[in-house]
Write a structure and sequence with these properties.
This protein has 299 residues and is an alpha/beta fold. The protein contains 9 helices and 7 strands; from the N terminus they run αββαβαβαβααββααα. The chain is elongated. The longest helix has 75 residues.
Length: 299
């Protein structure tokens, strides 16, 4: 059993850890408020843009898919053997399963695609995903300063332009966004969103009160395809920017929750070690008293 000096040292060490985790919790809580506001303010714009494109491309739809004579970013490619995944992680750790869930998905999905004879290309955003996955021949780009990039729409716009060039040069067949979406302080949802070619989901099919019917009353100049060719690239940048804001808010929420749990665990550990310390001290005192009494009786 540890002596009193070792127990006091352990108590002081845990108290120091508790101060650190408590401070990190407060910092994450302060950053979360702004990050949450940015993410929530961007959602209506990104969702509305998706609904707008879904309404505009109605004449290119043939059943569940798109006809072959539509814009390239809408129609897609016939092959799906080389998908590209944009993985958005954090630059720092200590945020629970925020980064580990992304790493686990990437490794498992890459193994699954390889078993099917497909090659998984990557654009990694965030130092943690880069350090976990590493560089491969199929790595397109690596970006590590997420905190600044998430506040800069220009980064998303430049990345979208490069993605379109890669796509036009047949360097990948499909593109997906993988990130943690902010749901609440306690819930961060791992989200996989198809970015290229454009995909209509259930929310877009509702058209938000009949957007498709409303757009049918307009005449397009020069034509609808030209409008789509302008909006589709912008939609890619908007969705990337929105995903980075969502990931930033989810990161701060996950870190705040993780540090709160760590602080509580530290408190429990301090109480446990203090109890052991008091018992050991009482045992030492009792042992010394017995020795004094035994010596007095011997005299």
């Amino acid at each position: 059993m540890a002596n009193l000096k070792e127990l006091r040292s352990r108590i002081n060490n845990v108290k120091g850890t508790k101060r650190i985790t408590s401070a990190m919790k407060m910092v994450a809580a302060a950053k979360l408020r702004r990050a949450q506001q940015n993410a929530e303010r961007t959602r209506p714009y990104s969702e509305r843009m998706g609904q707008l494109i879904a309404a505009l491309c109605s004449e290119y739809r043939d059943g569940d898919g798109f006809v072959d004579n539509g814009p390239p970013l809408l129609v897609g490619k016939k092959s799906d053997s080389n998908p590209l995944y944009i993985i958005i992680s954090a630059d720092r750790g200590l945020c629970g399963g925020f980064n580990s869930n992304l790493v686990k998905f990437t490794l498992n999905h890459r193994a699954k695609l390889q078993s099917e004879g497909k090659d998984m290309s990557l654009v990694m955003i965030g130092r943690k995903i880069v350090s976990a996955i590493g560089f491969t021949d199929s790595t397109f780009e690596v970006h590590e300063d997420v905190s600044k990039a998430s506040e800069n729409y220009g980064f998303a716009q430049e990345l979208s332009e490069r993605l379109i060039n890669y796509y036009n040069n047949d360097e990948f067949s499909e593109c997906y966004l993988v990130f943690n979406r902010f749901v609440s302080v306690l819930v961060q949802e791992l989200t996989i969103q198809k970015l290229i070619p454009f995909q209509i989901d259930e929310k877009m099919q509702k058209n938000d009160g009949g957007m498709q019917e409303n757009l049918g009353n307009f005449e397009y100049e020069p034509d609808r395809e030209e409008v789509l060719n302008e909006i589709l690239p912008k939609n890619i940048a908007v969705q990337i920017y929105s995903a980075m804001l969502e990931s930033s808010a989810a990161e701060q929420a996950a870190r705040m929750t993780a540090m709160d749990n760590a602080t509580r665990n530290a408190e429990e550990m301090i109480d446990k070690i203090t109890l052991i310390y008091n018992r050991q001290r009482q045992a030492n005192i009792t042992s010394e008293l017995i020795e004094i009494i035994s010596g007095a009786e011997a005299l």
